[in-house]
Known about the structure:
This protein is α+β, with helices and mostly antiparallel strands. It is 36% helix and 28% strand. It has helices spanning 2-8, 12-31, 45-54, 111-122, 155-162, 174-181, and strands at 35-36, 39-40, 65-66, 74-81, 85-93, 96-103, 127-129, 132-137, 140-145, 149-154. Strands 3-4-5-6-10-9-8-7 form an eight-stranded antiparallel β-sheet. β1 and β2 (39-40) form a beta hairpin.
Amino acid sequence: xxxxxxxxxxxxxxxxxxxxxxxxxxxxxxxxxxxxxxxxxxxxxxxxxxxxxxxxxxxxxxxxxxxxxxxxxxxxxxxxxxxxxxxxxxxxxxxxxxxxxxxxxxxxxxxxxxxxxxxxxxxxxxxxxxxxxxxxxxxxxxxxxxxxxxxxxxxxxxxxxxxxxxxxxxxxxxxxxxxxxxx
Length: 183
């Protein structure tokens, strides 16, 4: 024990210990990619289709493209891994995957099982409310929503593509301030 305490007197050793502890977490996010079953945010549409057609578990329907946005450069590709995952929606912009929505059949996989697995992969969630948990890893938001839905969203691309402006959280009126002060 005395030897360990002696090492901790030098500032380099605690930093090395911290780096060694967190290194697998960062390597997981960068090297393996973030996504579902090998389909990761940032892949091209062609890479996704090639991978999905080769991967035995994916079902790639003949009319797999959903054209919600015919004028824009946004495309949605649908896949499945039936019966457990009846729907996987992949959203592309300029041929890059920026959002993945995985809808599990909750009779096979439930919300709490998914959350437990996500915590083992990515650590404790950053946000919690009664219907969802959220992680943010390398600019990618991962949401687990009830009943059994997982969403991977590249935030910067999502905001650019959709033009969505996140709401400013805060107190916007004197009345709200007064009500909150009364708590």
